[in-house]
Amino acid sequence: MSRKPTLAVVGATGAVGTVMLDILTNRPDLSAAYGEIRLVASPRSAGKVLSVRGEDVVVQALAPEVFDGVDIAMFDVPDEVSAEWAPIAASRGVVVVDNSGAFRMDPDVPLVVPECNAEQVRNRPKGIIANPNCTTLSMMAVMGALHREYGLRELVVASYQAASGAGAAGITRLYDELQAVAGDRSIGTVAGDVRKAVPDLADSPFPAPLALNVVPWAGSLKEDGWSSEELKVRNESRKILGIPDLKVSATCVRVPVVTTHSLAIHATFEREVTVEGAREVLEAAPTVVVLDDPASRVFPTPADVVGTDPTYVGRIRQALDFPNTLELFVCGDNLRKGAALNTAEIAALVAAEFN
To answer: Which family does it belong to (predicted)?
Structure first.
C-alpha cells in the first residue's frame, strides 16, 4: 500500500535552504508527494518558525533523533557537516540527497541530474545521492541533451560565476563593495583604485575586489594552478554524463552578479552537428529555454534568468576552424537549478518509489 513519505530539509535556514522551501511551497509537482515536512538546522536556528506549503513549521536542531520516521532528507550544509551527518541519517533508513561536495566523487554515491541520468537514483548503496556543483549543473541540461544526440567528446568552458556561489557572505560582500564605490566615477580609471575604495579584503570571500571587476578565480588552490571549482567541472561532468574519458578544460571566473551563473561553452562532438539541428534538440528539451536571436539582441543574461527554473541557452554558433564543434552561452540560476531545484527533483524521484 502506498503512503506519503516524510521529508526533512536539513539546512533550512541557509541561502539554498530558503530557496528549497520556496520550491516546496510553489512547485506542487515537487512537494505534493510528501506528508510531513520537517525543517532542521544548526542549534542556533532551532526554534525559528518558517513557512512551507503555507504551514508554519518549527525548526529543529540537527540531532540523530530528528531523522526518526524520516524517509528522505535534502541536505544543504557545509561539506564537513554532510560528511558527518548524512551517514547518520542513512543509517536510520533515510535516503539522503546531499547538496554538498562531500560525496560527489564517491564511487558508491550517484551524482544525479535528472535530465541526464535519472536512472542512477536507485543505485545508492550508501543511501546517499549527491547533487552536483552549481557551476557544473548550470550546463548539464543543455550538454546532456546534445550528448544524447551527437556524442560529446570535448568541453572547453569559461564560467562567469555569481557572488551567491560563495554563499550569503558573497552576496553581502558584493553589496558592500557596490555601496563603497557607488558614485565615484574615478574608480576603474588611471586615477581610481578599486582596492582602496572597497572594505578590507581580509574580510572578503573573494581574493580581489568584485565590484567593477572580474576575478579569474573561484574555489581553493589545487595542483598545477587549477582551482577546485575548475576540477569539479571536469570530474563531475564526466561522472554525470557517463563519459570517463571526456576531455574537459575549465576556467572559473567570479563576476559582479548577485545570482545566476553563466558559461561560455566550446563543445566538440563525435558526430556531425549543425546549429539548426542543435537548436531543434535544445528546443525539445523540457527544462531548456532557447533565447538565440542576436540580430534582435535576444540572448540569455543573468538579469533575465534569476529566480527562474529552466536552463537558458543562446549564442549557438558553429565554431570557426573546429569541425563538429559548437559555441554556446548558457545561464542558470545557481541557487535554483544549480542547487535547491535539482536537489528537490532528485528527492521527487525517490518519493515516487513510495507509490
So the answer is: Belongs to the aspartate-semialdehyde dehydrogenase family.
Please confirm, yes or no, whether 116 is among the known catalytic residues: no
Which of 81, 5, 2 has the alpha carbon at shortest distance from 38?
A: 5
Quick one: how far is CA 171 from the chain centroid? 16
What CATH number is associated with residue 241?
A: 3.30.360.10
16 is in an annotated binding site: yes
Residue whose C-alpha cell is 539582441: 297
Q: Is 134 a catalytic residue?
A: yes
Where does residue 312 rank: exposed (0-12), middle (13-18), buried (19+ CB within 10 A)?
buried
Dihedral sign of CA atoms 158, 161, 166, 170 in order:
positive
Residues 113 and 11 in one domain: yes
pLDDT 10s digits, 85-137: 999 999 999 999 999 999 999 999 999 999 999 999 999 999 999 999 999 99
Q: Give 5's DSSP letter.
A: P
- Which residues, including other chains, have CB under 8 Å from residue 321's CB and lie 6 or more apart? none
Query: Of residues 116, 252, 261, 331, which has the active-site annotation?
Result: 261
CB 30 within 8 A of CB 348: yes
Per the CB < 8 A criterion, the answer to whether 208 and 201 are in contact is yes
